[in-house]
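Check my protein:
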Amino acid sequence: MNAAPSADSSSQQRRAAEDAQYSVLFVCTANICRSPMAMGLWKAAVQGSGEGWRIESAGVRALEGMPPAELTLYVLARRGISLEGFRSRPVTRDLLEGFNLVLTMEAEHRRVLREAYPDLAARVYLLSEMVGRGEDVEDPIGGSWIAFEATAQHLEELLRNGAPRIRQLAASSPG
């Protein structure tokens, strides 16, 4: 049975967000491939940095509680990254409000979030904008492990090269 989060869990999440020095939410469509992959890769990239991060993911059309795609787990495991216990979830206003930075995989995701939550639009960017580009990260769903590997490599490149901008925007206070 999926219960709605209690007021206690909502306030605990807000306190965790307030305690984090940086916060970023990665968003894709179903929250089973690209955004959990980006979340895992970014967690690995900042691990041991001494920075306080809140890093999560969600989907604009996600079903609650789905496990990541098997090939998402596979390409991350090849990099020593585990998503044990991860389950998909949809984007909500409460979730967005807890993050300084929201990074989408497609321009369509960015458009949908900015239109649905215009007061939070300044937090929402396309991931590739972190490196001065405007390209979508291709959805590998339905493809072979090679498609998932190509997506992981693309995400690694965007995260590595976009790290300074991600840190800058993730550190700004929510507005």
In short: The mean pLDDT is 91. The chain has one domain: 28-171.
